[in-house]
Backbone:
């Protein structure tokens, strides 16, 4: 068994292991990402950066239940102008591949934010088109409307040179995610990230109201794993560009499942809560053990294996 | 980091972090700005740990706790939306509690003198620590710093528990006039060498106390407060530079040696958006 059996190539970028920190978790500063990097993540994604500074929703914004998470953080971020030096510091400090995630309220503002990020010459950027918790002020996510998604990806691609690989993060809250994947691909996306959270709500029966101040939030964690696995399965059949599979990955078995339906990289987020910061290390150990038992030499050999 | 919160960072699996509504047993007015709330419940928290206090429909914030057999209490200043609403609450009203979270103060192996330096309502976890330490045969002294005599909290309460306390006030209305780190210097000048010093209060005060300890080589533990959203180690809001430690998981209680590695301590902190702001 070679030591590098977990390494993968994603959009021409080498990852020592396929586990990446999902956007929204920890990615607030170079220091917090570095802490995740030291916990042996293969790559890290920043928190999504927007057009303007946002404080996010009023707490409670993050709840855990049965090892899952319900969140309505509300895309808090310092805004792109104040974030540029923070992002530059991340690029300097982080040695594993860094994905810069961003969002905006309109497609024009998405392009404006993208233009500013491009000045940093990142290798990988993520167009977060699918936050479900900001409907009240940002409107419905672009990724649930095929026409809106098409124009968005087109406008962003126009300002992002081909040398920068553009990942589009999709929502599971659509009748057929493969249609959205095809649209993003045809408008120039280099990769797809699937899936964002599923809308959800928790009621405190004694208070007789939702616990989140925002009332509803996005569900992540093992509760949505089958949803995410099916989404990646459907996308893999429909598109040729690589996929980051995420949603409820907690164990080595979960990660291999994601790869077998077609993911090249696997996102990890909520498992930081359920298994602690060492989750990246634990998943890799579990993957390596299973691969050894099953005679799997590298991850490329099993990518999409579940499609027969 | 040698402290451990026992939740997740060391591999222990975690499931729930939903608030539980519990009724307030009693409300005590401590000062013009601060009220204490007593609850007939135990959280099995260690001194220094915190809870997230939820007022349904209003919001949530981290709060330090004082606990004893069969009950716990919080002391909250009326300074924001959540605390403002809480100040309207009476006995019988229910608030949501989740936690306890974070690391706690630890006692040194060797028994002897301990010093707790409190600023404002930083007295809450230190009072809890002092009483626990006294029960275990240590000799704690609290240096309680406040703006005015009225705001030097827990005086009667700690007197009843026979905890030694010295007071400093900014305006000189009680005890030594000036800041509490000056009271600490005066205390230490009497050839005292505590086995451990603990501090909790406004960060600039803590920073001044830490500088005294570092210069005099007194081991210390500090409660580091940062803006918190989740309280459970996933959002990154309370991560500090340059280590990335999350103050809800690897903190809030940090040893003096680890504190030296947190270069932002005493200088800046992050707001709700994640933007750094100087103190």
Residues:
């Amino acid at each position: 068994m070679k030591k590098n059996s977990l390494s993968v190539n994603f959009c021409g970028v080498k990852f020592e292991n396929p586990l990446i920190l999902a956007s929204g978790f920890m990615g607030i500063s170079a220091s917090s990402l570095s802490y995740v990097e030291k916990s042996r993540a293969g790559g890290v994604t920043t928190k999504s950066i927007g057009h303007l500074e946002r404080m996010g929703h009023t707490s409670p914004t993050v709840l855990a239940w049965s090892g899952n998470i319900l969140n309505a953080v509300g895309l808090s971020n310092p805004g792109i102008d104040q974030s540029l030096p923070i992002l530059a510091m991340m690029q300097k400090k982080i040695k594993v591949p860094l994905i810069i995630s961003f969002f905006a309220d309109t497609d024009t503002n998405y392009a404006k934010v993208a233009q500013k990020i491009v000045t940093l010459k990142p290798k990988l950027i993520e167009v977060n088109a699918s936050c479900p918790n900001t409907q009240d002020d940002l409107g419905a996510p672009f990724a649930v409307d095929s026409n809106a998604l098409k124009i968005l990806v087109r406008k962003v691609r126009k300002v992002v040179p081909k040398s920068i690989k553009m990942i589009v993060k999709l929502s599971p809250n659509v009748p057929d995610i493969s249609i959205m994947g095809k649209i993003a691909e045809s408008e120039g996306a280099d990769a797809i990230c699937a899936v964002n959270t599923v809308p959800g709500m928790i009621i405190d029966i004694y208070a007789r109201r939702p616990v989140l101040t925002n009332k509803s939030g996005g569900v992540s964690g093992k509760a949505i794993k089958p949803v995410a696995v099916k989404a990646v399965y459907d996308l893999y059949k429909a598109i040729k560009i690589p996929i980051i599979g995420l949603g409820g990955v907690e164990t080595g078995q979960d990660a291999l499942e994601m790869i077998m339906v077609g993911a090249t990289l696997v996102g990890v987020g909520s498992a930081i809560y359920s298994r602690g910061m060492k989750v990246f290390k634990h998943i890799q150990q579990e993957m390596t053990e299973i691969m050894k038992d099953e005679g799997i030499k590298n991850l490329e050999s099993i990518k999409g294996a579940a499609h027969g | 980091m040698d402290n451990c919160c026992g939740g997740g960072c060391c591999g222990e699996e975690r499931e729930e972090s939903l608030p539980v509504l519990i009724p307030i047993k009693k409300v005590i007015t401590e000062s013009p700005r601060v009220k204490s709330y007593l609850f007939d419940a135990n959280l099995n928290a260690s001194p220094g740990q915190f809870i997230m206090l939820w007022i349904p429909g209003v919001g949530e914030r981290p709060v330090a706790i004082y606990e004893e057999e069969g009950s716990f209490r919080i002391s909250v200043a009326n300074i924001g939306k959540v605390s403002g609403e809480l100040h309207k609450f009476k006995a019988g009203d229910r608030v949501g509690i989740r936690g306890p979270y974070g690391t706690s103060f630890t006692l040194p192996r060797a028994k002897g003198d301990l010093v707790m330096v409190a600023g404002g309502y930083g007295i809450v976890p230190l009072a809890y620590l002092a009483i626990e330490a006294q029960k275990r045969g240590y000799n704690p002294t609290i240096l309680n710093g406040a703006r005015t005599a009225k705001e030097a909290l827990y005086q009667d309460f700690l007197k009843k528990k026979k905890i030694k306390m010295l007071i400093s006030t900014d305006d000189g209305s009680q005890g030594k006039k000036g800041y509490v780190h000056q009271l600490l210097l005066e205390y230490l000048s009497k050839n005292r060498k505590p086995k451990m010093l603990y501090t909790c209060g406004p960060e600039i005060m803590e920073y001044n106390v830490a500088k005294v300890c570092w210069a005099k080589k007194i081991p210390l533990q500090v409660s580091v407060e940062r803006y918190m959203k989740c309280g459970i180690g996933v959002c990154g809001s309370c991560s500090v530079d340059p280590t990335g430690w999350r103050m809800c998981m690897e903190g809030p209680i940090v040893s003096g040696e680890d504190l030296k590695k947190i270069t932002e301590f005493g200088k800046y902190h992050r707001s709700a958006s994640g933007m750094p702001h100087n103190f």
